[in-house]
Amino acid sequence: MPILTITFADETRTVTCATNQLIGEVVLASGLPLEQPCAGRGTCGKCKVIAEGALTPHDEIERKYLLAAERAANVRLACRARVLGNARVTLLPIVVYSNKIFARSDEFRANDDPLGLAIDLGSTTVAAFLVSLKSGTIYAGAGALNQQTIFGADVIARLHAAREHADQLSALAQSSIRQAIAALKLSQRVWTRIERVVIVGNTAMHHLLLRYPVDRIAVLPFQPYTRAAIQDARNVFGDLFPLHARVMLPPLIGGFVGSDTTACLAAFDFDCARVPMLAIDLGTNGEVMATDGKTILVASTAAGPAF
Ligand code: FES
What we know:
By secondary structure, the protein is an alpha+beta fold. The chain has helices at about 25-30, 60-65, 70, 105-110, 155-180, 190, 205-210, 260-265; strands at about 5-10, 10-15, 20, 50-55, 75, 80-90, 115-120, 125-130, 140-145, 195-200, 245-250, 275-280, 285-290, 295-300. Helix content is about 25%, strand content about 30%. FE2/S2 (inorganic) cluster binds near residues 38 and 47.
Protein backbone atom coordinates (compact mmCIF):
# COMPACT_ATOMS: atom_id res chain seq x y z
CA MET A 1 0.00 0.00 0.00
CA PRO A 2 1.27 3.51 -0.76
CA ILE A 3 2.82 5.57 2.00
CA LEU A 4 2.18 9.29 2.08
CA THR A 5 4.55 11.46 4.09
CA ILE A 6 2.79 14.68 5.07
CA THR A 7 4.57 17.73 6.43
CA PHE A 8 2.89 20.71 8.06
CA ALA A 9 5.20 23.35 9.54
CA ASP A 10 7.62 21.39 11.77
CA GLU A 11 5.38 18.33 12.02
CA THR A 12 5.67 15.27 9.77
CA ARG A 13 3.28 12.32 9.70
CA THR A 14 3.48 9.14 7.68
CA VAL A 15 0.22 7.58 6.61
CA THR A 16 -0.53 4.38 4.75
CA CYS A 17 -3.34 4.85 2.26
CA ALA A 18 -5.22 3.08 -0.50
CA THR A 19 -4.06 3.27 -4.10
CA ASN A 20 -5.96 5.99 -5.93
CA GLN A 21 -7.01 7.75 -2.73
CA LEU A 22 -7.31 11.54 -2.88
CA ILE A 23 -4.55 13.49 -1.14
CA GLY A 24 -7.25 15.45 0.72
CA GLU A 25 -8.75 12.26 2.15
CA VAL A 26 -5.37 11.04 3.35
CA VAL A 27 -4.55 14.39 4.96
CA LEU A 28 -7.92 14.27 6.72
CA ALA A 29 -7.07 10.86 8.13
CA SER A 30 -3.68 12.16 9.28
CA GLY A 31 -5.29 14.81 11.49
CA LEU A 32 -3.24 17.62 9.96
CA PRO A 33 -5.07 20.77 8.83
CA LEU A 34 -6.05 21.43 5.24
CA GLU A 35 -8.49 24.00 3.88
CA GLN A 36 -10.93 22.77 1.25
CA PRO A 37 -13.29 25.76 0.93
CA CYS A 38 -15.55 24.19 -1.73
CA ALA A 39 -15.53 20.86 0.12
CA GLY A 40 -13.66 19.15 -2.71
CA ARG A 41 -16.11 20.00 -5.48
CA GLY A 42 -13.27 21.39 -7.62
CA THR A 43 -14.76 24.88 -7.89
CA CYS A 44 -12.50 27.04 -5.69
CA GLY A 45 -8.96 26.02 -6.61
CA LYS A 46 -7.80 26.77 -3.07
CA CYS A 47 -6.84 23.37 -1.66
CA LYS A 48 -3.26 23.77 -2.87
CA VAL A 49 -0.50 21.53 -1.53
CA ILE A 50 2.99 20.75 -2.75
CA ALA A 51 3.20 17.08 -3.66
CA GLU A 52 5.70 14.85 -5.40
CA GLY A 53 6.05 11.14 -5.98
CA ALA A 54 3.68 8.61 -7.49
CA LEU A 55 0.57 10.68 -8.16
CA THR A 56 -2.02 10.94 -10.90
CA PRO A 57 -1.16 13.58 -13.54
CA HIS A 58 -2.73 17.07 -13.33
CA ASP A 59 -6.35 16.83 -14.41
CA GLU A 60 -8.52 19.36 -16.19
CA ILE A 61 -9.55 21.15 -12.97
CA GLU A 62 -5.95 21.48 -11.82
CA ARG A 63 -4.94 22.83 -15.24
CA LYS A 64 -7.73 25.40 -14.90
CA TYR A 65 -6.78 26.62 -11.41
CA LEU A 66 -3.00 26.21 -11.30
CA LEU A 67 -0.58 28.39 -13.24
CA ALA A 68 1.98 26.60 -15.39
CA ALA A 69 4.66 27.79 -12.95
CA GLU A 70 2.74 26.30 -10.04
CA ARG A 71 2.33 22.99 -11.85
CA ALA A 72 6.06 22.98 -12.56
CA ALA A 73 6.69 23.55 -8.84
CA ASN A 74 4.64 20.44 -7.93
CA VAL A 75 1.65 22.38 -6.66
CA ARG A 76 -1.44 20.16 -6.66
CA LEU A 77 -5.07 20.45 -5.64
CA ALA A 78 -5.64 18.09 -2.73
CA CYS A 79 -9.17 17.30 -3.86
CA ARG A 80 -8.03 16.23 -7.36
CA ALA A 81 -4.61 14.55 -7.09
CA ARG A 82 -4.66 10.86 -6.21
CA VAL A 83 -1.95 8.76 -4.63
CA LEU A 84 -0.65 5.92 -6.80
CA GLY A 85 2.43 4.98 -4.77
CA ASN A 86 4.77 6.48 -2.19
CA ALA A 87 4.64 10.27 -2.20
CA ARG A 88 5.38 13.35 -0.11
CA VAL A 89 3.02 16.21 0.56
CA THR A 90 3.79 19.57 2.11
CA LEU A 91 0.80 21.46 3.46
CA LEU A 92 0.83 25.20 3.05
CA PRO A 93 0.62 27.42 6.12
CA ILE A 94 -2.94 28.34 7.05
CA VAL A 95 -3.29 31.94 8.06
CA VAL A 96 -5.48 32.31 11.11
CA TYR A 97 -5.51 36.03 11.75
CA SER A 98 -6.67 35.46 15.29
CA ASN A 99 -3.91 32.98 16.05
CA LYS A 100 -2.34 35.30 18.56
CA ILE A 101 -3.04 36.36 22.10
CA PHE A 102 -5.87 38.93 22.00
CA ALA A 103 -5.37 40.42 25.42
CA ARG A 104 -3.10 39.49 28.20
CA SER A 105 -2.77 40.22 31.86
CA ASP A 106 -0.63 38.15 34.17
CA GLU A 107 -2.72 39.18 37.19
CA PHE A 108 -4.16 35.67 37.51
CA ARG A 109 -0.72 34.37 38.45
CA ALA A 110 -0.67 36.67 41.48
CA ASN A 111 -4.13 35.80 42.80
CA ASP A 112 -6.09 32.63 43.50
CA ASP A 113 -9.31 33.59 41.75
CA PRO A 114 -11.22 30.65 40.32
CA LEU A 115 -10.83 30.59 36.56
CA GLY A 116 -13.08 29.84 33.62
CA LEU A 117 -12.53 29.00 29.99
CA ALA A 118 -14.81 30.58 27.38
CA ILE A 119 -14.79 28.83 24.01
CA ASP A 120 -16.28 30.31 20.83
CA LEU A 121 -16.52 27.57 18.23
CA GLY A 122 -16.75 29.61 15.03
CA SER A 123 -17.15 28.22 11.52
CA THR A 124 -13.64 29.37 10.60
CA THR A 125 -11.91 30.23 13.86
CA VAL A 126 -12.07 28.75 17.32
CA ALA A 127 -11.31 31.20 20.11
CA ALA A 128 -10.46 30.36 23.71
CA PHE A 129 -10.37 32.86 26.57
CA LEU A 130 -9.11 32.56 30.13
CA VAL A 131 -11.44 34.47 32.44
CA SER A 132 -11.63 35.26 36.16
CA LEU A 133 -14.85 33.78 37.58
CA LYS A 134 -14.64 36.34 40.37
CA SER A 135 -14.20 39.61 38.49
CA GLY A 136 -15.01 38.63 34.90
CA THR A 137 -11.59 39.89 33.78
CA ILE A 138 -10.43 38.35 30.50
CA TYR A 139 -6.79 37.48 31.09
CA ALA A 140 -5.87 35.97 27.75
CA GLY A 141 -7.37 34.84 24.49
CA ALA A 142 -6.08 32.81 21.57
CA GLY A 143 -7.43 31.23 18.41
CA ALA A 144 -6.99 28.32 16.06
CA LEU A 145 -8.39 27.32 12.70
CA ASN A 146 -11.56 25.24 12.82
CA GLN A 147 -10.18 22.11 11.19
CA GLN A 148 -13.62 21.24 9.85
CA THR A 149 -12.73 23.56 6.94
CA ILE A 150 -11.34 20.45 5.26
CA PHE A 151 -15.03 19.67 4.62
CA GLY A 152 -15.74 23.14 3.24
CA ALA A 153 -15.66 26.77 4.37
CA ASP A 154 -19.41 27.18 4.72
CA VAL A 155 -21.70 25.51 7.20
CA ILE A 156 -23.98 24.06 4.51
CA ALA A 157 -21.08 22.05 3.03
CA ARG A 158 -20.30 20.71 6.51
CA LEU A 159 -23.89 19.78 7.24
CA HIS A 160 -23.85 17.91 3.94
CA ALA A 161 -20.59 16.16 4.94
CA ALA A 162 -22.12 15.21 8.30
CA ARG A 163 -24.26 12.60 6.58
CA GLU A 164 -21.14 10.45 6.19
CA HIS A 165 -18.53 12.03 8.44
CA ALA A 166 -20.39 13.09 11.60
CA ASP A 167 -17.86 11.48 13.94
CA GLN A 168 -14.94 13.09 12.13
CA LEU A 169 -16.58 16.53 12.17
CA SER A 170 -17.10 16.29 15.92
CA ALA A 171 -13.53 15.08 16.43
CA LEU A 172 -12.16 17.92 14.27
CA ALA A 173 -14.14 20.48 16.29
CA GLN A 174 -12.74 19.04 19.52
CA SER A 175 -9.23 18.96 18.09
CA SER A 176 -9.58 22.62 17.06
CA ILE A 177 -10.74 23.55 20.56
CA ARG A 178 -7.72 21.70 21.94
CA GLN A 179 -5.43 23.72 19.63
CA ALA A 180 -6.99 27.02 20.66
CA ILE A 181 -6.55 26.15 24.33
CA ALA A 182 -2.96 25.03 23.69
CA ALA A 183 -2.27 28.44 22.14
CA LEU A 184 -3.09 29.97 25.55
CA LYS A 185 -0.03 28.15 26.93
CA LEU A 186 -1.54 27.51 30.36
CA SER A 187 0.56 25.93 33.07
CA GLN A 188 -0.66 22.82 34.91
CA ARG A 189 -1.25 24.96 38.00
CA VAL A 190 -3.52 27.32 36.08
CA TRP A 191 -5.24 24.35 34.39
CA THR A 192 -6.25 22.92 37.77
CA ARG A 193 -7.77 26.28 38.78
CA ILE A 194 -10.27 26.18 35.91
CA GLU A 195 -13.69 25.47 37.41
CA ARG A 196 -16.05 26.35 34.58
CA VAL A 197 -16.00 25.96 30.80
CA VAL A 198 -18.60 27.59 28.56
CA ILE A 199 -18.78 26.67 24.88
CA VAL A 200 -20.78 28.73 22.37
CA GLY A 201 -21.21 28.52 18.62
CA ASN A 202 -23.74 28.87 15.85
CA THR A 203 -26.35 26.15 15.56
CA ALA A 204 -24.43 24.10 12.99
CA MET A 205 -21.17 24.17 14.97
CA HIS A 206 -23.04 23.33 18.19
CA HIS A 207 -24.79 20.34 16.62
CA LEU A 208 -21.71 19.06 14.81
CA LEU A 209 -19.67 19.27 18.01
CA LEU A 210 -22.25 17.33 20.00
CA ARG A 211 -23.01 14.83 17.20
CA TYR A 212 -26.67 15.91 17.15
CA PRO A 213 -28.72 15.10 14.03
CA VAL A 214 -28.37 17.96 11.53
CA ASP A 215 -30.96 17.02 8.90
CA ARG A 216 -33.50 19.56 10.24
CA ILE A 217 -31.11 22.55 10.07
CA ALA A 218 -30.02 21.69 6.52
CA VAL A 219 -33.49 22.26 5.00
CA LEU A 220 -36.28 24.82 5.29
CA PRO A 221 -37.28 26.10 7.82
CA PHE A 222 -33.77 25.39 9.19
CA GLN A 223 -34.72 24.44 12.72
CA PRO A 224 -32.31 23.00 15.31
CA TYR A 225 -32.66 19.45 16.59
CA THR A 226 -32.85 21.06 20.05
CA ARG A 227 -32.23 24.52 21.45
CA ALA A 228 -31.85 23.40 25.05
CA ALA A 229 -28.92 24.41 27.21
CA ILE A 230 -26.62 21.73 28.54
CA GLN A 231 -25.82 22.47 32.16
CA ASP A 232 -23.02 19.98 32.57
CA ALA A 233 -21.35 18.22 29.67
CA ARG A 234 -18.15 17.22 31.43
CA ASN A 235 -18.67 13.57 30.47
CA VAL A 236 -18.96 14.38 26.77
CA PHE A 237 -15.46 15.68 26.10
CA GLY A 238 -13.07 13.25 27.78
CA ASP A 239 -9.91 15.03 28.88
CA LEU A 240 -10.40 18.03 26.60
CA PHE A 241 -11.10 20.18 29.65
CA PRO A 242 -10.00 19.86 33.30
CA LEU A 243 -11.85 16.79 34.60
CA HIS A 244 -13.24 18.61 37.65
CA ALA A 245 -14.57 21.60 35.64
CA ARG A 246 -18.27 22.03 34.90
CA VAL A 247 -18.76 22.31 31.14
CA MET A 248 -21.79 24.27 29.98
CA LEU A 249 -23.35 24.96 26.59
CA PRO A 250 -25.87 27.82 26.70
CA PRO A 251 -29.16 27.57 24.78
CA LEU A 252 -29.51 28.24 21.07
CA ILE A 253 -31.99 30.83 19.80
CA GLY A 254 -33.27 29.24 16.58
CA GLY A 255 -32.43 28.68 12.93
CA PHE A 256 -28.71 29.34 12.53
CA VAL A 257 -28.75 31.82 15.43
CA GLY A 258 -26.84 29.93 18.05
CA SER A 259 -25.50 30.24 21.55
CA ASP A 260 -22.76 32.68 20.48
CA THR A 261 -25.61 35.15 19.97
CA THR A 262 -27.16 34.21 23.33
CA ALA A 263 -23.80 35.01 24.94
CA CYS A 264 -23.52 38.30 23.06
CA LEU A 265 -27.02 39.37 24.15
CA ALA A 266 -26.17 38.51 27.75
CA ALA A 267 -22.76 40.24 27.64
CA PHE A 268 -24.27 43.51 26.39
CA ASP A 269 -27.38 43.34 28.64
CA PHE A 270 -29.82 43.39 25.74
CA ASP A 271 -32.55 42.19 28.09
CA CYS A 272 -32.44 45.43 30.09
CA ALA A 273 -31.42 47.92 27.40
CA ARG A 274 -32.60 51.47 28.16
CA VAL A 275 -31.87 52.78 24.68
CA PRO A 276 -32.10 51.15 21.25
CA MET A 277 -29.10 48.92 20.68
CA LEU A 278 -27.62 47.08 17.73
CA ALA A 279 -24.90 44.46 17.69
CA ILE A 280 -23.35 42.78 14.65
CA ASP A 281 -21.27 39.61 14.72
CA LEU A 282 -19.61 39.64 11.32
CA GLY A 283 -18.30 36.11 11.07
CA THR A 284 -18.43 33.41 8.41
CA ASN A 285 -21.93 32.90 9.77
CA GLY A 286 -22.98 36.44 10.73
CA GLU A 287 -25.71 37.68 13.07
CA VAL A 288 -27.43 41.00 13.64
CA MET A 289 -29.11 41.74 16.98
CA ALA A 290 -31.34 44.73 17.60
CA THR A 291 -33.55 45.96 20.41
CA ASP A 292 -35.75 49.01 20.99
CA GLY A 293 -35.66 48.33 24.73
CA LYS A 294 -38.78 46.13 24.61
CA THR A 295 -38.30 43.52 21.93
CA ILE A 296 -35.10 41.84 20.80
CA LEU A 297 -34.81 40.77 17.16
CA VAL A 298 -32.01 38.62 15.79
CA ALA A 299 -31.21 37.40 12.29
CA SER A 300 -28.46 35.33 10.77
CA THR A 301 -26.87 35.14 7.35
CA ALA A 302 -23.86 33.60 5.65
CA ALA A 303 -21.45 36.56 5.68
CA GLY A 304 -18.34 34.60 4.70
CA PRO A 305 -18.83 34.77 0.92
CA ALA A 306 -18.73 38.60 1.15
CA PHE A 307 -15.01 38.27 1.86
S1 FES B 1 -10.96 22.91 -5.53
FE1 FES B 1 -12.08 23.53 -3.78
S2 FES B 1 -11.42 22.13 -2.27
FE2 FES B 1 -10.30 21.55 -3.99
